[in-house]
Amino acid sequence: MAVKNDGTVWQWGDITTYRGAEGSETNLYALLPVQVAGLEDVISVAAGQLHSLALKKDGTVWTWGGNHEGQLGNGNHQSSAIAQKVEGLTNVIAVEADWTRSFAVKSDGTVWGWGGFYTEDSLGNFSSSEQPVKLPGLSDIVTISSGYGSFVALKKDGTVWQYQTQLQGIQDIIQVAVGAEYTYGLKKDGSVWYWGSDGEGLVNGVSVSEDSAPRLFEGVKDIVAIQASAGGPLMLRRDGTVWASGTNSGGQLGNGTWESSDVPVQVKGLKKITNIAAHGIGFRSMAIRADGTLWAWGGSFVGDGKKGSRTIPVGIASFPNQTLDQDPIFVEIDGNILQSDQPSVSIKNRTMVPLRAIMEALGAELTWNSSTSSITVKKGEITVKLTVGQKTAYVNDKKVTLDSPPALVNNNTVVPARFVSESLGAKVGWDEKGKTVVITTAELAQTS
């Protein structure tokens, strides 16, 4: 699943929900992303084996999918292909799910759960709930993670709790991720720590079987985000690269092979990544690049229109006919990567950028004359005029000859990045290593 900037939710895959005596019903079979009907203003999502959760910006939680253990939180075992609000649950700041369990963290630091997990009451009786119940012994929680039967909660003081028991020997944690056989914690200093969960496996060549004491994960540093698949950790470095290790059953190491690795390997073809995602009960991984594009790899149904697994990342289209370039030219404006439906392109060794996107980023007013294919840009006392296919442009009525004229690419108008930026008072540089046009507006330069 994925959440777009507009708050809509999109899903893909092969999911069958179960209705008990009524048999099974396939709610989703999609090789490409399809929109989840009835959901808007969503800020995050979580998914179990057969069910899904969405958190809206108003703090409410919505669920849909399989419900044979009450994981939808609607008070019964009736599955639903339509997202429904979980009643009585408000002020939620985070959601999580695994096989048939659902969890939510509220703004007051409490954790609530429902579905296929069991809690003990004061009389020593164990029971599960088809509606959210407050988990005892947890307070000041900011985030949680769950996977193959494991559950960890992170307190705002940086301590880690496994249900009601604090994990000793570790502190200053800012993120946690539960995998199939071991759990990971990211410290403030960018180091990664791991501890076993009575499973079998190797980390750095060392067995974690029946090992619960946290250990430093060697070979990685400057990590800013961590997730975990069923095979092992997925890590985002400060430099925008992505690294993984562990069992490679679905190809989720992203290194172009099916070989597992007990040391971190770099995921191929990814740079300027800002967010990563994986789940402790699956073998797929995803990443969002700074230009807003989504990339996925690992187990089948990654969202690129094919069933098979992918051992290197592939682009997942956000709309029909979207152009996804594995090695694009980036445009950075005042430290922010430009996002646009049409990526920047090189025409005759000149970087051409999508017209509307760069004008909005530069704070300029744009007028388009469709009958003449002419463009008028205004910012303050500066007026720039261009015409598609014409090398002649005007800056405050002064004639200028362009190396590359505005052009149409995939029915989108692109213009020369350096010319339009410098004409509007910005400074333009080129980062060869990062293939990035670096633009500094006059406004930022004045405040620096």
TrEMBL record:
Pfam families: Cu_amine_oxidN1, RCC1, RCC1_2. SUPFAM superfamilies: Copper amine oxidase, domain N, RCC1/BLIP-II. InterPro entries: Cu_amine_oxidase-like_N, Mao_N_sf, Ran_GTPase-activating, RCC1/BLIP-II, Reg_chr_condens. It comes from the Bacteria. Residues 333-439 form the Copper amine oxidase-like N-terminal domain. This is Copper amine oxidase-like N-terminal domain-containing protein. The lineage of its organism: Bacteria, Bacillati, Bacillota, Bacilli, Bacillales.
